[in-house]
Amino acid sequence: MKIVIPGGTGQVGTVVARAMHADGHDVVVLSRKPDSAPWRVVHWDAVTLGDWCMELEGADAVINLAGRTVNCRYTPEHRREIVDSRVLSTTVVGKAIAAAKNPPRVWLQAATATIYAHRFDAPNDEATGIIGGDEPNAPDTWRFSIDVAKAWEKALNEADTPKTRKVAMRSAMTMSPDPGGIFDTLLTLVRKGLGGRAGSGKQYISWVHENDFVRALYWIIEHDDLAGPVNIAAPNPLPNAEFMRLLRKAAGVPIGLPAANWMLEIGARLMKSETELILKSRRVISGRLTAQGFKFQFPNWADAAQELCLRGSEMRGNART
């Protein structure tokens, strides 16, 4: 297959490009700052139509992962960049597909499981999940993230691409051992003795192993009846306290200091991030994928954490030799 990946130079994009290139597919990454890679990398500005549009002709799939990182303080400037990087890139991809003479069969558009409400009582699937934004006493930063998620999907839904199936990938945190990713960040905290519960520890963490994320993309590409929102998350989200306990166990670290909310706020400011990434309860499952028969290779966090820790150690060892 020919697979075009706008925004494919980020952590998740690299995971996807690496896996699909290794599987023998023709992978083309669209990047604002092209660099050398085992696959082709083509320049685009993520805003305007250009020569990059030719890459979409005859492509089997477009997987748009463009968007500024949300791991930052939500200043007015950063909020604008977060929204624009998602909405404008989605809009221009839609325009390019609409103008193509031989458009892609399917457009997989990054979205986020953050669109669902902060809750503890039940998991959010596509059919019964509660869209967030109306939670009482929710911080402004949480509402902003919901607004971003809604605007992102709105741009996808408004794109006029009658010959191309559209899927909004409401994905949970993708866990891989690559440096700089979310798993690497959490593991670093654990090794420094800071891997205890965050706040009450009751808030749920939804996640997906990188292998299952890529496998889910293949599944979506191959199943023509999948369109609209599709959750990509392991079937067993778990509370923060248990999630961190299992990560400490996998890493061989017996103790992790807990952090109260006020400590997390100080730490988030020092790390130029937001506590929403830690304290919001994201209890999400993949209802549509599971109903179709998709089987997760890593349905449980204990097994996933052990595999990621082991492979991360191997990667660090190889880097030193």
Q: If you had to describe this structure to a student in words, what would you say it looks like?
A:
There is one protein chain. The strands form 3 sheets. Strands 3-2-1-4-5-6-10 form a 7-stranded parallel sheet, with helices on both faces. It has a two-stranded parallel ribbon with strand order 7-9. α3 links the parallel β5 and β6. The chain has one domain: 3-Layer(aba) Sandwich (Rossmann fold), CATH 3.40.50.720. The longest helix has 24 residues. The chain contains 10 helices and 11 strands. The two termini are 35 Å apart.
Structure summarized in a few sentences:
The chain has 321 residues and is α/β, with parallel strands linked by helices.
Overall pLDDT: 92
CATH topology: the name is: Rossmann fold
Radius of gyration: 19 Å
Largest sheet: 7 strands, parallel
The N- to C-terminal Cα distance equals 35 Å
CATH architecture heading:
3-Layer(aba) Sandwich
| Beta-strand residue percentage | 5-15%
Strand neighbour order, sheet with most strands: 3-2-1-4-5-6-10
The parts where pLDDT drops under 50 for at least 5 residues are none
Number of strands: 11
SSE-based structural type? alpha/beta
> What number of structural domains do the residues give?
1
Q: Looking at the structure, what is the overall shape? A: globular
User: Order of helices and strands, N to C?
Assistant: EHEEEHEHEEHEEHEEHHHHH
**How many helices does DSSP assign?**
10
CATH superfamily: NAD(P)-binding Rossmann-like Domain
CATH top level is Alpha Beta
- Helix proportion: 40-55%
